[in-house]
Design a protein that fits this description.
By secondary structure, the protein is α+β, with helices and mostly antiparallel strands. The protein has helices at about 5-25, 80-95, 95-100, 110-120, 155-165, 170-180, and strands spanning about 30-35, 40-45, 50-60, 65, 100-105, 125-130, 135-140, 185-190, 190-195, 200-205, 210-215. Strands 1, 2, 3, 4, 5, 6 and 7 form a 7-stranded antiparallel sheet that branches. A 4-stranded antiparallel sheet has the order 8-9-10-11, with helices on one face.
Length: about 220
């Protein structure tokens, strides 16, 4: 959907995808329940996380409604902080879909909204909960997510997943991803090298900035 800018996915998508894949592996296909008063999502095995509400997607009208614009839902104000943070960012950077309370979307666009929120708000993942008439989109926000590995090897799963799902500038997205993981990044012509104490990664691109090769480089 054109309303959701690819530049935001390029800027925030890589590290957000890494977090999301880790969270999705934990949550799996388990049953879920959201308690707005407690501000938590609970899964069938007793796993639970603090949440922030982003918005809802109507299955009948195929429209997205931001949580801050949904006055009838009675969402506690403390669960709207990240949705309002996105709205403020949208106003500052003149991004319409972050400031418009309701607009048409496709279901796959919910993943874009979730990834952007995880990246911009530094959340630990997002969840799409189908409640029949619609799908709610929320972020999970543990105060201490020690289990999230933020390791080197995840790059080689997360980044290919990102560029397979979104039509973006691969080179720009990888530079942003590595930078957010605190890698030192050297970019020259059609090659990128990123390195940290965790490891070293090398990537090559064609003249359209599409990834040709992504590999782990031994020191």
């Amino acid at each position: 959907m054109e309303i959701i800018t690819k530049e935001l996915i390029e800027e925030f998508g890589g590290f957000a995808m890494e977090k999301q894949l880790f969270f999705a592996d934990m949550a799996g296909e388990m049953g879920w329940n959201v308690d707005l008063q407690e501000g938590e999502i609970t899964f069938a095995d007793g796993l639970f996380f603090p949440i922030q509400m982003l918005g809802t997607f109507s299955h009948s009208s195929e429209t997205w409604l931001w949580a801050w614009a949904n006055a009838e839902s009675g969402i506690p104000a403390n669960l709207l902080k990240q949705a309002k943070m996105l709205k403020k960012y949208g106003k500052t950077h003149k991004i319409d879909f972050l400031t418009k309370d309701k607009f048409e979307v496709e279901r796959n666009d919910l993943h874009s909204i979730g990834l952007i929120a995880v990246g911009l708000c530094e959340a630990s993942g997002y969840y799409l909960g189908n409640y029949g008439a619609g799908t709610m989109c929320l972020t999970i926000n543990p105060e201490d997510f020690e289990e999230f590995p933020n390791d080197h090897i995840s790059i080689f799963t997360s980044f290919p997943k990102l560029i397979s799902q979104f039509e973006i500038n691969h080179k720009a997205a990888l530079v942003n991803y590595l930078t957010q993981k605190n890698y030192t990044v050297e970019a020259k012509d059609n090659e990128i090298i990123g390195f940290s104490e965790k490891g070293k990664v090398k990537a090559s691109f064609d003249n359209l900035c599409r990834l040709i090769e992504l590999k782990d480089v031994a020191e």
